[in-house]
């Protein structure tokens, strides 16, 4: 998966509550992805906007796959409990 693929999925599926490569300060209950040189980190934030459930990847593609998987799950959960 590429960054363009992920952005298409986000747009087409109307996914919300994400932090795309630190485009803003971490907010509560969002899924985020960021890079630190040659590694990528995918996380979920808690109700206090603290990153939790962090997973590190050596491949951007694997990180993007994990990011979109988490984002889909979060949005599905959000719809169920609205």
Give the secondary structure arrangement, pairings included.
Elements: H1 3-13, E1 18-20, E2 31-36, E3 39-45, E4 51-57, H2 60-80
Parallel strand pairs: 1-2
Antiparallel strand pairs: 2-3, 3-4
Produce a short descriptive summary.
By secondary structure, this protein is an alpha+beta fold. The protein has helices spanning 3-13, 60-80, and strands at 18-20, 31-36, 39-45, 51-57. Strand 3 (39-45) and strand 4 (51-57) form a beta hairpin.
- Radius of gyration (Å): 12 Å
pLDDT < 50 stretches: none
Q: How big a fraction of the residues is strand?
A: 25-35%
Q: How far apart are the termini?
A: 30 Å
Separate helix tally: 2
Query: Which oligomerization state do the chains in this entry correspond to?
Result: single chain
Order of the strands making up the biggest sheet: 1-2-3-4
- The mean pLDDT is 94
What does the main sheet amount to? Answer: 4 strands, mixed
Report the principal-axis shape. Answer: globular
Order of helices and strands: HEEEEH
The number of distinct β-strands equals 4
């Amino acid at each position: 998966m590429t960054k363009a693929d992920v952005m298409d999925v986000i747009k087409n599926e109307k996914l919300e509550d994400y932090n795309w490569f630190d485009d803003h300060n971490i907010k509560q209950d969002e899924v985020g992805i960021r890079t630190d040189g040659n590694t990528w980190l995918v996380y979920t934030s808690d109700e206090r906007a603290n990153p939790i459930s962090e997973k590190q990847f050596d491949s951007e593609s694997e990180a993007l796959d994990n990011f979109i998987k988490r984002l889909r799950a979060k949005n599905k959960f959000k719809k169920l409990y609205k």
